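Blinded run. Sample ID left blank on purpose so nobody reads anything into the name before looking at the predicted structure. Input follows.
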Amino acid sequence: MIEDSIRVLRQAAKVSSNGEYKIEKTWCVIAGNAELIDKIAYKAIASHHSVKILFREHVILNEGKLDKKYDFIMLYGSSIVIDEFKNFSSQNGGAYVRILRKYLSDEPNLMVFIAPDNIIKKAVSLIEKSKVSFAILQDSQTTGFIDVDLNSEVKLPNFIKSALKPFYNVNEVVLSTILISVDKKEEIKKVQSIATSNRIFVIDFKDIVTEE
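Blinded prediction complete.
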């Protein structure tokens, strides 16, 4: 255990010009149900400014008579603390991708996709068929339940909706978060168009990164 902690510290730190160790900062996206993301947000706020919340989103996908609900959050800060969030997310059924700083120089045109797993796979297939050159750098799926409710178009008393919920919540909705790199800048719009038309939330990383 002690050896593991030392290894994590060494991986997360780099030597500055004056010979001192400086903790490297990194980004991550965590997706799951609202309860999990509430806990992640609390941990970030309680991290004494080690990690900051860049943004959080609540998404509702309408499919027929059902609303599928999920949340996700994007964080930036100490890579050591971000690693702790990864473990917490994994233990609580969340999907997690980490955007390493080296990607900024090694990989072109980074984007993060968040959506139910079947939608992600369909979009990736369409992007591949459109002859776009891209790579999936990381992918992660939830193991916890995503909230599913009857939508407002279903005219039933609330107590009946509550009684029915266990039946339409039987099948777990798997949520996927993937980090992709598109080789050619001119193909980014095509990728974004395919993703958004399939109701995927897209984070274009060039809009996120700012110099400190």
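Unblinding after everyone has recorded impressions. The first helix runs from residue 2 to 12.
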